[in-house]
Amino acid sequence: MHLARYPRVRLAHLPTPLEPMPRLSAHLGGPQLWVKRDDCTGLSTGGNKTRKLEFLMADARRHEADMVITQGATQSNHARQTAAAAARLGLDCHILLENRTGRADRDYQDNGNVLLDRLHGASIERHEGGTDMVAALSRAAERFRTEGRRPYIIPGGGSNEIGALGYVNAALELLGQANDQGLRIDHVVHATGSAGTQAGLVTGLAGARTRIPVLGIGVRAPRKQQEENVLALAERTAEHLEIPGAVTAADVRANCDYVGGGYGVPTAGMQEAVSLAARLEGLLLDPVYSGKGMAGLIDLIRRGHFGDGENVVFLHTGGSAALFGYAVNLLDAESGG
Ligand SMILES: *Cc1c(COP(=O)(O)O)cnc(C)c1O
């Protein structure tokens, strides 16, 4: 795994800090909790997509693209980080947003990530929930090509074997920090969606023969499908890195019990997790991903899933900009508690 062999542009503030969460650990009892601060990657309020975009944007340059196009949900953190990366590199950016929640309120539609997409100068095309977004993305690309443009297509979430290299790199970075600090990592837990983050992490951690288990907390698909998606992408990533066979099905674990009513639909567990992280650690989670990921971690701790002496690292994948798209749900929770 020699990442310097792969083209990369620098966009992220790295390494991101690895910090203890003493007050949340004490509040919950059980394992010692740590947080890997990928909410601090620096680009337009940060988040996990920036690491992927370092490799994807380099590939766009290699293809001599003059613009990038991508897709996501209305409050997509990926779309926002792509728009910012494109701005930084002087490329145009076109994004397709799917209203997966069916919400029509102003904050959801125009505040949070959507406000930032606009500030970064991206053009936006809106689609109803249930649209075949992969097909819509290739139609949009075709339209730009007939206009003489050279669009580079970034898949939803930046999740392909190129983007996943960002999380192979994150795995090596985390391992180096833990070794330097003398921190024995027993588990890594994070929110998993389009699968690139988990695929990259497990490829890096398995490729380095660490035997550190990674648990993805799902935000959309059922467990079997999520594990299949992660494994398939991890296998492609390992091939891309010329270490085929480095990842096996046993390395890929997801728990999709915390999705609730669907992608982007608030849950009581998410509201509690966002509130606890904010009040006990001064940390901003998000309503769609890291809030549900932390809700899963909290519930698993309460169920005694982790040993008392264990160290659990929560990978904070970012997303706080989406809080402003969901203010109404979070304020409800605060006034109730
Ligand atoms: C996209 C995203 C995730 C999920 O990462 P995938 O690579 O899509 O699985 C988690 N958290 C946040 C905040 C995200 O924006």
UniProtKB/TrEMBL annotation:
Keyword Lyase tagged: yes
Active site per database record: S76 (nucleophile)
Keywords: Lyase, Pyridoxal phosphate
MF terms (GO), sorted A to Z: D-cysteine desulfhydrase activity; L-cysteate sulfo-lyase activity
Cofactor(s) needed for function: pyridoxal 5'-phosphate
InterPro entries, per database record: ACCD_DCysDesulf, D-Cys_desShydrase, TrpB-like_PALP, TrpB-like_PALP_sf
Protein EC: 4.4.1.25
Modified positions (N6-(pyridoxal phosphate)lysine) in chain numbering: K49
Family that this chain belongs to: Belongs to the ACC deaminase/D-cysteine desulfhydrase family.
Protein name: L-cysteate sulfo-lyase
Upper classification of the organism: Bacteria, Pseudomonadati, Pseudomonadota, Gammaproteobacteria, Chromatiales
